[in-house]
Amino acid sequence: MTAMDLSKWEPSLQMSTDTDLNIAKRENKQYEMKYKAVYDECIKRKQIYNNNKIKAYALLWKRCAKLMQNKISARVDYETKRYDNPIKLLKAIREHAMDYQETKYEMSIIIDAMKALMNTKQREGENLVE
User: Fold this and answer.
1) Cα separation, 91 vs 58, whole angstroms
2) 0.90 cut: is pTM over it?
3) Euclidean distance between CA atoms 58 and 69, whole angstroms
4) What is the structure's pLDDT at 104?
5) How far is CA 40 from CA 11, 17, 27, 30, 43, in A?
6) Which is nearest to 5 in space by CA: 45, 34, 35?
7) How far lies 79's CA from each of 72, 76, 85, in Å?
8) Could you please report the per-residue DSSP string of 6-46?
9) DSSP string, 70-108
10) What is the Rg, in whole angstroms, of the alpha carbon atoms belonging to the chain?
11) Are 100 and 106 in contact (CB under 8 A)?
12) Which of 5, 24, 32, 78 has the smallest C-beta neighbourhood within 10 Å, fewest atoms?
């Protein structure tokens, strides 16, 4: 439930320690080419990661019930902190899903859940998710 540290992916440029100038130049050139290739991969990987974060957010948001979506979008910090951040969305879902159960008696939670299950019916023009 924490974001990845993307700075760990970044490569570091090596420098030759050889005393011969020709060999040192050649090794430095090789290190620069290797660094550029690894750095290009790092940038692509970061872009893929950021795109996948947005996709993960969309998937989680789509799986939430309408009531849960309304509760989360009504939060004050939704636009600034929660939007397009799947980790913070998961934390908000956990808060709203578990919040009401902490103050109630355990058996009343079970009975309420069973009542909700038994009294559920689909209305006209309503899809299964709603």
Assistant:
1) 15
2) no
3) 12
4) 60
5) 10, 25, 20, 16, 5
6) 45
7) 10, 8, 10
8) GGGG---------SSHHHHHHHHHHHHHHHHHHHHHHHHHH
9) HHHHTSTTIIIIITT-HHHHHHHHHHHHHHTTSSS-HHH
10) 26
11) no
12) 5
- The tens-digit pLDDT sequence of the chain (130 residues) is 888 888 888 898 999 888 898 999 999 999 999 999 999 999 999 999 999 999 999 999 999 888 888 888 888 878 777 778 899 889 888 888 876 554 566 777 788 888 888 888 887 887 776 6
Q: Give the other-Cβ count within 10 Å of 69's Cβ.
A: 14
Q: Which amino acid is at 65?
A: A
Integer Cα distance of 128 and 27 in angstroms? 64
58 φ, ψ (degrees, to nearest 5):
-65, -40
For residue 98, give both structure tokens: 């578990």
Per-residue tokens: 90:
């998961």
Count of Cβ atoms closer than 10 Å to residue 16 Cβ:
16
Tokens of 99: 């919040």
Distance between CA atoms of residues 110 and 117, nearest Å: 11
